Automatic annotation (TrEMBL):
Key word Transport present: no
Domain Sensor protein KdpD transmembrane: from-to ranges: 13-113
Keywords, comma-separated and alphabetical: ATP-binding, Kinase, Membrane, Nucleotide-binding, Phosphoprotein, Transferase, Transmembrane, Transmembrane helix, Two-component regulatory system
Recorded topology in the membrane: Multi-pass membrane protein
Transmembrane segments annotated in the record for this chain: 39-69
InterPro entries for this protein: Histidine_kinase_KdpD, KdpD_sf, KdpD_TM
Superkingdom: Bacteria
Protein name from the UniProt record: Sensor protein KdpD transmembrane domain-containing protein
Length: 247
């Protein structure tokens, strides 16, 4: 997640810097290039920024491109003013097309991130299921899932309690929601509660224990991540149930 935040920050800087830099680099060709060609080159820059960043970066780069096209390539030059109607139309089209294309590029990048995340989640579930079938001790599966949950939900810590239901901590339910007392906690807006959250483990309908999740303040795990966490806990329940039946 931090990697994508850093990438977005870089894209925001590029959104403000790249269009004027490219426009200035094209100045020596102002007499040989048509304004339409310049506008198309700037659209390419907008797409590149949006693909690397998010929608905000794409929108800023589109606005920046339109502003600096006006400044460098429309008469009167080096002024934020346009005297020719054709240049006005080109500048407006640059802005509109740049905004539209940047949003499409940002959406494509978002879908790519989701696809990568889905693949990682699927791999985690598959690895745990394989381990649950092959591990000689269920403790191996418990330790494995403890590490997975810590990374998946960006926790400060995670531990497993066997057969313990003392207290009334917030609880991560099978549908990915969090219940605290008799109320549902708005995880998507508030993140996980500021105290340990229990994730119960069942195998064949029998309760075997619970993971105690220690959330990192300020982080908001997605519903998809929470559902994967529940699935991983169920894999532990399967491993514990298999051992209990075999003993």
């Amino acid at each position: 997640m931090a990697r994508y935040l850093d990438r977005d920050r870089i894209a925001l800087v590029a959104a403000l810097v790249a269009p004027p830099a490219v426009a200035a680099a094209l100045l020596p060709l102002r007499d040989s290039l048509s304004n339409t060609s310049v506008a198309l080159i700037l659209v390419v820059i907008v797409v590149a920024v949006a693909s690397a960043g998010n929608r905000l970066a794409g929108a800023l780069s589109a606005i920046s491109a339109a502003v600096w096209f006006d400044f460098f390539f429309t008469e009167p030059y080096q002024r934020f003013a346009i005297s020719k109607s054709a240049d006005i139309e080109t500048d407006v089209l640059l802005l509109v097309v740049g905004l539209a294309v940047s949003q499409l590029a940002a959406r494509a990048r978002q879908l790519q991130v989701v696809a990568i995340r889905d693949a990682v989640y699927l791999e985690q579930i598959h690895d745990t299921a394989t381990l649950a079938q092959t591990a000689r001790s269920p403790d191996t599966v418990v330790d494995h899932v403890t590490v997975q949950l810590t990374r998946l939900l960006n926790l400060r810590g995670c531990r497993f309690e066997y057969g313990n239901l003392t207290g009334h901590p917030p609880r991560l339910e099978q549908d990915g929601t969090v219940v605290w007392g008799r109320k549902r906690w708005n995880v998507d807006r508030l993140g996980l509660p500021g105290e340990e959250v229990e994730l119960r483990t069942f195998g064949n309908g029998r309760f075997y224990g619970r993971f105690m999740l220690d959330p990192t303040p300020g982080t908001i795990p997605t519903l998809q991540a929470r559902l994967v966490a529940v699935t991983l806990a169920d894999q532990v329940g399967t491993a514990l149930d298999t051992t209990a039946d075999g003993s």
